[in-house]
Protein 1
Amino acid sequence: MVESVEEHYGSEGIVERIVQALSDAGFDTNNLDADVLAGADEFHIGGREGTLHVASAVDVGPGKQLLDVGCGIGGAARFLARSTGASVTGVDLTPEFVEAAIELTDLVGMSGLVDFKVGSATDLPFLDDTFDAVTMLHVGMNIEDKNQMMHELTRVCRPQGTVVVYDVTIAKAGDLPYPMPWSSTPQFSFPEPVAKYEEAAASAGLQHLSSSDHYDLALKFFNEPPASPPPVSLGHLMGPRMLEMRDNAGEAVNQGLISPVLMTFQVP
Ligand SMILES: C[S@@+](CC[C@H](N)C(=O)[O-])C[C@H]1O[C@@H](n2cnc3c(N)ncnc32)[C@H](O)[C@@H]1O
């Protein structure tokens, strides 16, 4: 019985499982490129393609500071640091994910560019106006209070900064099958239609720039697996239960119940 969000996600031995799989696949694990982790460390619909959409929406560059909220084991944070040149901080509720994020970042030689901290999206451990931009990928489905979540993303972002949210949203009413990748049961699952996010953002004072639905990417992600699978996968992150969670998410996408949406906002 899973008692919390952290318990759903966390497990011992994440880095060991990933490193072992890479070693078995013939990689020199003392000399790894960050990209090789992409199958396991980008835990959102579309994987790298989803991260690229976020990277093109976020407006930062060298000398700027970006916060990735609900960073998981840090895949998007590392990619955003490499692709934008900004310094990136990741924050996540699950201690085992934060530990793995720190170890993997060290393993790929990026510790000077990206750092990580345990913390909650609804009570971020940062002062007001700390970051030039804030991203959040596939986290809001675990958070009931969208107003508080948006308020916190806004609070830590400087004036004129961008807030980019890429989340699984409800596209059509209907019962979702569980376990889902973000929750084993409905108890910790709060996906909402995109309008709910936009309302919460407005109540936090954010200016809405755009929302784009990436349903086609979701259909491709679940129905057209790559011809050659990557050396590591979300199974190494979440264990064997990932198969059922992925099948359920794919079924919900195919039924048109859920869809990933990229929302971009600006702090006035
Ligand atoms: C589906 S994973 C996505 C991870 C990462 N953003 C990515 O795209 O690879 C959801 C993440 O949200 C984190 N999370 C859930 N609720 C949270 C909260 N209230 N505050 C911070 N992190 C949270 C989980 O621990 C998990 O790492």
Protein 2
Amino acid sequence: MNKSDVIVIGGGIAGLMAANVAAKHGKKVTVITYGSGSFPLFSGAFDFFGRDAEGNFISSPAKGIENLPAAHPYKKIGMNYVTESIDFFKELTSKYNLPYVGTIEKQIPVVTAAGTLKYSCLVPQSMDATNLNKANKIFVVAIKGLKDFYAEMIAENLKKFLRKEITAVEIDLNFLGGRDINSYDAAQFMSDDALKDFIGQLKNFGSGNDVAFIIPPILGIEGNAIYNAVKSSVGAEIFETTCLPPSPVGMRVQKVLVNALQDSGVKIFENTKVLRALKENDKVTGVVVQTAVREKFYRAEKIILATGGFFGGGIVMRQFEKPQETVFDLPVYFVKGAENWSNENLFGASPQGFSMTGILIDENLQPLDVKGFENVRVVGNNIGGADFIFERSLGGIALASAYKVAVSL
Ligand SMILES: Cc1cc2nc3c(=O)[nH]c(=O)nc-3n(C[C@H](O)[C@H](O)[C@H](O)COP(=O)(O)OP(=O)(O)OC[C@H]3O[C@@H](n4cnc5c(N)ncnc54)[C@H](O)[C@@H]3O)c2cc1C
């Protein structure tokens, strides 16, 4: 019988963060997950808070969070844990050579694949576009054969924000293999030879403090080594953009979190689905999982439910207004009325009722209104009561909730 201090169900951002924090605090941790979470969809830039109730941009996420009502998940988590979660994440990623920058006090611009600026408060160093405006010769670099990266469109749109001359260029790295490639393919193709070629071709456009290159996120699928090599060899500023999935930057984050867990001796069971609670005397003592041949039991003192809400499959809704939490059948909060469910423009400045769906929590991140689940904690997208999409808090609530739960076990 497998017995741990804590079982984490779900290997997305929240689950892997919680597992790392718990392991760092000396807990024996087991992670059980199927799927790879939303890493391949994740831009890499963590949104903590970006909009007030009127839909106005918030330049200080800290101030925005301070003004939230008491029932909001961030208020249950508490600002000190939010700040500590950022520090923990920065320290961990920098140890694994994927440095992140930022604080909860201010937003950092990142160039999107559409040529707009997205503001987040915790971003990979390779995407931090704070200094972009300092350059006077800015090139947007398309790679021949790479789909979904339109350098000319990005240059045109960026001009509206930066009011400078921005030039779209294309380089050929011979990445064509009979089909169009995506950013993840290109990031994988960045061998020593391709890198040398890339650096040489960028240098042809210029170098120096005055020069900046905006490029798709193709600088490898692990760590920052390729970014550092390109930046120092070219001798210019380099900014990776966001991209359409699969996102190499999201996958870099996943690699760091998984490598760190393996270094801490944490067991990770992949492609393994948790079916239900193992209960004794009305108390959750573990979980039942489905393996290829039979059901297996894993016991633990505490269980962290990080199954990702709607996006991760932790909550499903087979019938309208009847959302279900898939492992423990916990009560799920949702906004009533089809007219309040969604708005046409997913990222527009109007609320998206469906994204409030989730499990309501108390200050310990224990599920509310249910008995027998006192040792279960809820993190990440499973948490209900916040319009993550409208207020732009998806990644932030995931990191901060995971951190608080894991340090408080
Ligand atoms: C398209 C998209 C774009 C995004 N972009 C951003 C962004 O730019 N910035 C930002 O801050 N955030 C972004 N996010 C949010 C972010 O990627 C995560 O969704 C968020 O951080 C929450 O992660 P999570 O760990 O709660 O869930 P997930 O990442 O969804 O992970 C949940 C995991 O649990 C597993 N699971 C579910 N049920 C079970 C079960 N019964 N047994 C075992 N495992 C199970 C799932 O397979 C999955 O691996 C984006 C999300 C999406 C969907």
Protein 3
Amino acid sequence: MTTQSPTFSTPYQALGEQGIRELTNAFYDIMESLPEAAGIRAMHQDDLTPMKERLAEYLIGWMGGPPVYAQKYGSVCMTKPHAGFAIGESERDQWLLCMDRALDAIDAEPALREMLKEPMFGIADMIRNR
Ligand code: HEM
């Protein structure tokens, strides 16, 4: 069996803006309902709707698309908006679990998951502050 190269070179090319919005909607719906993510759910505001939008805008740029978040809010290092929350390995892993389940929910293809694995861990671990 030959391994096929992916037909995209960035996650944005694979998902498009719409796909990224579906991913972030699924991400916060999962955070809302997954008992294992209750710890990080409790850190967020009651209404997760604004976060669906903000994470989508951030990820569109981070995944190789237009820098919509930076255009709106300036180029913000992600450690800053998280500095007021206690984020250790457990919180990082809860976040990554939600992202993993969200990728399941949108039926993300294996090549995309592979492309995201290390950088997604990297940015979540960078946000960790204890
Ligand atoms: C490592 C575990 C993480 C935890 C526990 C966490 C938690 C939070 C919390 C509590 C907020 C504030 C939400 C609110 O006001 O309701 C927030 C904001 C945000 N987070 Fe995270 N986060 C994590 C990782 C990430 C990662 C990896 C990304 C990006 C890939 C990200 C992107 C954002 C964005 C874009 C905002 C909004 C910032 C703003 O514009 O104010 N977060 N996060």
Protein 4
Amino acid sequence: MNSPHTLSHIVIAGGGTAGWVAAAALSRLTNNGETRITLVESEEIRTVGVGEATIPPIAMFLRLLGIDLSEFMRETQATIKLGIEFEGWLREGHRYIHPFGDYGRDINAVRFYQYWLKLRAFGKDVGEIEEYCLAAMAARHQRFAPPDPDPRTVQSSMAYAFHFDAALYAAYLRRYSEARGVRRVEGKIADVTLRSEDGYVSSLKLADGREIEGDLFIDCTGFRALLIGKAMGVPYVDWSHWLPMNSALAVQSERVADPLPYTRSTARPAGWQWTIPLQHRTGNGHVYCSDYMNDEDAGKILLASISGRPLTAPSQLRFTTGRRAEFWSRNVVALGLSSGFMEPLESTSIHFIQAGVTKLIALLPDKRFNPIERDTYNRLSIMQFEQTRDFLILHYKATERTGPFWDYVRNMDIPDTLAQKIELFRSNGRLFRFEDELFGEANWQSVLMGQGIMPERWDPMADALDVNVVAKQVQGIREAVRETALRLPTHQEFLTRFCAAPEPVD
Ligand SMILES: Cc1cc2nc3c(=O)[nH]c(=O)nc-3n(C[C@H](O)[C@H](O)[C@H](O)COP(=O)(O)OP(=O)(O)OC[C@H]3O[C@@H](n4cnc5c(N)ncnc54)[C@H](O)[C@@H]3O)c2cc1C
């Protein structure tokens, strides 16, 4: 017998990726037999239709839902993502991979890259830092196999995420959720009713007159933010002075080659372009700042540089980078685009939806809505958003690119938290992961070095071992990573064997 205060009805407003991720997780993980879940969406109002690259925690999230990864990949036309190749971000012609997974292995409790820095300074042939990361080397050779469970093997260090078709992912999670009792209501939300005594949401009014009452409401209405923004007036904290991108054009194109197992991000005069390879097609998009580039030119740049025939007309998206002042206010929790938005440079938005709903489940309120649950949720969410904001700003700040847009971002003031991180790394390569930070030391190291910030000196802790002994170990790791990468099946062989998707039907 549950408590009389247990939530009776959770109402999810919106059925894009956020709505269906929330429905799937809540139906699986709050299975108390007393809480009904209803999702309201309108076929008249389209989803954003983008959001196709992810980061490694998604595999754990899907497993938590009991989803078979092979089935999931087949049904969503998914491919493997081993990281992002940044092309032209430091300067034209330069490229580096921000891979998933670690570089080398710690020696004597000192980070591997510290030895790499030292040996390099001693004039040893240590090659590029990416040669020590299996995901990066596998990406370079277009190969993939899942991590080996034996922690002694190099292959145990493989880390990966997915690219998938956003529409197929939402449809897949809808089937999953409805099979677990989630009720879907088709209808347009016309109004949100607030209780006069405390401003809590009491119901959603649909255009056809129906009314849906609930205890807890999840706002997944996208940029419209019908509950948290429009009805409740929770302010938006604008970060566009640091991340000035505000526009994107997205277009799908025909697949012309075997899909790459990584996302490509190519710097452009006022922004950048993504290439996301799926099994059946390629996703492309140009993210730009309209103060420095008009839509027509942005479209021309995009269409001139995609491979394969365009399958759709480019679709235009507008956004303001930032976050809600509160992600959870009274009895409304915002997930997805209604909660805030950071451009897709490091593919973090879907992760924030997953992280948001799992945090919500961990802090699930009852009908009394103890403010400590809400406050903890907000504190954790704001911290993760701000840490990720800093990580994104780093890509723009540390560059040698020139031109009106790049001059602005290269010279702009940055948050103190980021300035301190850069300074600490620049002095002798030290990095720390604060609290529950999404991007760890290997991620920061990869992007700091990739964007041209090299430590002036290595950590003195790396001096405890003889340089020639270390050189041998480092060389051994380099060879082992290379051999392992070359032994793996190609990415296409892996897809064919593990999860070949059916040919799409037009
Ligand atoms: C250019 C761009 C590229 C991106 N790329 C990535 C990426 O690579 N990786 C990543 O992780 N994320 C990415 N994202 C973010 C990702 O697309 C979103 O986080 C994700 O799609 C979630 O969107 P959503 O569900 O919040 O909103 P939406 O997709 O907009 O869904 C909103 C839902 O609300 C419903 N709705 C709205 N108003 C009403 C109403 N009045 N009545 C009834 N229903 C209503 C709609 O019908 C729809 O179902 C990108 C975003 C943009 C803009």
